[in-house]
Fold this protein.
Amino acid sequence: DVKVTQSSRYLVKRTGEKVFLECVQDMDHENMFWYRQDPGLGLRLIYFSYDVKMKEKGDIPEGYSVSREKKERFSLILESASTNQTSMYLCASSAWTGEAYEQYFGPGTRLTVT
Amino acid sequence: QKEVEQDPGPLSVPEGAIVSLNCTYSNSAFQYFMWYRQYSRKGPELLMYTYSSGNKEDGRFTAQVDKSSKYISLFIRDSQPSDSATYLCAMSGGTSGTYKYIFGTGTRLKVLA
């Protein structure tokens, strides 16, 4: 079974702090993603990476950066946390199965910025 | 207009009912269609996917794609209280790429015992 793990389930940070969210997958997937999920807005893509050290902006990259130094690990960085970044953050990884790109999610990190 | 539209619900049904969950989309280039189930405070879990048009069945779940109408459905037969969750559709293809999925906002389903 594919396993995607995230470093924290719940996190509380103060405005202006630098925040690191870590994600690790154990299935050698090429692609990794960071989303945020908010009520009424659904899942919105922040950044994705299709290879080590490669990254592309998603739909809402402002205020975020990412790092992928190893294939299995994809980090999301909030450079200076703000209250409007309070959200559920979901990491995912995917690979081609021969029929489709199957995308698997981690359990999520619920971040509260006060 | 959003690329993918999904009724947020909640949809309440009695145990044993057949449930129909639907999404519409506007991008005719979408070719890959996925359904996820998300329990409260958990990450989405991949249920099933279909490529292009047609039906796919897996146990009590059937996924259906109608590309001519830009409409996809997930049917759940003999629904159980454990099916109570939010169901997300996702799709990809065309200029957005085949590995980057666009998600609906989810439909909340409640199956009453």
